[in-house]
């Protein structure tokens, strides 16, 4: 396990992240998060676990995480939920509730970093979902770092190991982990892609993985320009005349994508919808309303954009 720990430490060093700071780790009880927890158990950490009580055996996952933390003298905070989720929106709602809980624990223990156990399969599944949605994202896959709800987030295993490799490492080190049987059920798009990837070799997956990494590297300069313009546009109160000066339609579409994802949750953005929003921003109407979905609107007032939370009278 020493070699794997050194590999993990090298990732922290590469990204100039202090491994000795106060760290919160999100732990589900699955092999990925239990392996990360095991590698980090000697550090200054706190564990957060969410039990959705959606599976008949979810209490086993909770007990597994709790017992590991007790044995290693690690503070462990558990959130038990009993919501009546609908299959269509479970993943989105679960994600929101999970991160809100993480934020609460992050503040409670004065943490300065949240670690998540996403690995190479997670990256590839996300990238394929994005590719098959017929839109070009700023970044394929998952970012290794980020910020959400005032938490600094880092995913140190994202480029290190595939899930099968992690399971093998857990077994080699006699590390107990839980298995979520719903991961193998084709009830979500991600699960269907996961089942599809299970039929190919790690070498074939690595080839696809590398292709997406190369696409991200090619896209870096474009993303920099998009984010730079967005920051300037925000400083100018999202003035529509400023936006109209952009000649590139791709740039306009990408900036609108950033605008919506930064200011709204759960908006389905197809290419057609993005172009429609671009047309709304560029239209001659200085005062107008664009309906994003049944509950969210984008407002234009005196040729500046406002969001649902502002609800200006137009």
Automatic annotation (TrEMBL):
One of its GO terms (molecular function) is tRNA(Ile)-lysidine synthase activity. Belongs to the tRNA(Ile)-lysidine synthase family. The N-terminal region contains the highly conserved SGGXDS motif, predicted to be a P-loop motif involved in ATP binding. This is tRNA(Ile)-lysidine synthase. InterPro entries: Rossmann-like_a/b/a_fold, TilS/TtcA_N, tRNA_Ile_lys_synt, tRNA_Ile_lys_synt_N. Residues 22-195 form the tRNA(Ile)-lysidine/2-thiocytidine synthase N-terminal domain. Ligates lysine onto the cytidine present at position 34 of the AUA codon-specific tRNA(Ile) that contains the anticodon CAU, in an ATP-dependent manner. Cytidine is converted to lysidine, thus changing the amino acid specificity of the tRNA from methionine to isoleucine. Keywords: ATP-binding, Cytoplasm, Ligase, Nucleotide-binding, tRNA processing. It is an enzyme of class 6 (ligase). The keyword Iron does not apply. It is found in: Cytoplasm. ATP binds at residues 28-33. Its EC number is 6.3.4.19. Pfam families: ATP_bind_3. It catalyses: cytidine(34) in tRNA(Ile2) + L-lysine + ATP = lysidine(34) in tRNA(Ile2) + AMP + diphosphate + H(+).
